[in-house]
Fold this sequence. Notes:
By secondary structure, the chain is mainly beta. It contains no helices and 16 strands. It has strands at about 10, 15-20, 25, 30, 35-40, 45-50, 55-60, 70-80, 85-90, 95-105, 125-135, 140-145, 150-155, 165, 170, 180. A five-stranded mixed barrel has the order 8-9-10-12-11. A four-stranded mixed sheet has the order 1-6-7-3, with no helix packed on it. Strands 2-5-4 form a three-stranded antiparallel sheet, with no helix packed on it. The protein is elongated and about 75 Å long.
Amino acid sequence: MTNRRIKDGDHVLPGERLGVIEEFIPGAGTFQDQDDAIYANITGNVRINMKERKISVESTTRTPLYPQRNDIVLGEIQSVSKKSAAINIFRVRDVPCEVPFSGFLYIKESVGGYVEQMQDLFTPGDVILARVQQQSEGLTHLSTVGSRFGVLRASCSKCGEFLKLKGTRLECPQCGNTENRKLANSYGQVPETGNANETSSPQASQ
């Protein structure tokens, strides 16, 4: 690799020469070879502390964000069967995911009591707020038990218009259709998601 005079803020790649031990003390993200030359150990931006005469590299590679137990997540229902639902998780700990994660919600973790079928609670396309129940064999298991968790946004199954909250039920302002969901107590308040399917949130009717 061609040598160049490294300055503070320069972007470097692993193995790129930063200087020599006579100039700097090697810091984080660097290594020193047998000839006392200092090299970048990671991809990132050079940081030079002239007071301490230390050179380091600050990583610019984002660490993947993985859902952990008890994390709060946003996701979209992809499919619903009698006993479970598959969810695309697109936000974890209030941070948008670069790549969505797959999550699963089982009927026993959906509400506090008995429900005969999952279709009574959720429909594909619903945006939900959920809690990570556990990670098992690479799968993210979710829970919507509790008033905080459940559907934040839903569309009419007949015409596709966003449903508005009217009392304890959802009503379509376009065709008048009414539907039920397992609602979060903040229904209609969908945070900025950065999701490709993001649209304006419905507002609750008084």
